Amino acid sequence: MIRKNPRGDLPVVAESAFVDPTAILCGKVVVGENVFIGPYAVIRADEVNEHGDMDPIIIGDNSNIQDGVVIHSKSGAAVLIGENTSIAHRSIVHGPCTVGRGVFIGFNTVLFNCTVGDGSVVRHNSVVESCTIPANFYVPSTSHVHGDSDLAMIEPVTPDASSFSEDVAQTNLRLVEGYKKIANEL
């Protein structure tokens, strides 16, 4: 469902993107080319800052926002999801937040008030807040990174983790094509 926010902003979705009919996109949201937005995802840009303004939530080209993901932002702050990035099932991305290009965010992960650098992998059931994960770093499953002081446990991304991330991204690009083909069959 595509709908306006109380301020009247309406999402802008590239024609080549696929948004599942059960997903909700509300407000100042920009969805790039070949993006897959899965069932029951909620992407909501509806809060304003103290001046009545808001930055957009932007989903970069060729990215995938999987089933049950919630993307929202506090007080109109920006949320930027880079190109070729995967946000896996039931994750929460709460702005202000920047997720770089070619990133994998694992199942049930929470990101808040943080930056995740290009090529990084944050595995399942992790929490990242109030810090910057450098480019090409690996956050193991169930990690809690609550500030820059916790970054000492972060290791570089392994070739296996990088390969897995790329496979997820490619699989979801094929899903966009498949779902776009059958969109008018129902």
UniProtKB/TrEMBL annotation:
<comment type="similarity">
    <text>Belongs to the gamma-class carbonic anhydrase family.</text>
</comment>
<dbReference type="Pfam" id="PF00132">
    <property type="entry name" value="Hexapep"/>
</dbReference>
<protein>
    <submittedName>
        <fullName>Carbonate dehydratase</fullName>
    </submittedName>
</protein>
<dbReference type="InterPro" id="IPR011004">
    <property type="entry name" value="Trimer_LpxA-like_sf"/>
</dbReference>
<dbReference type="InterPro" id="IPR001451">
    <property type="entry name" value="Hexapep"/>
</dbReference>
<dbReference type="InterPro" id="IPR047223">
    <property type="entry name" value="CA_gamma_LbH"/>
</dbReference>
<dbReference type="InterPro" id="IPR052265">
    <property type="entry name" value="Gamma-CA"/>
</dbReference>
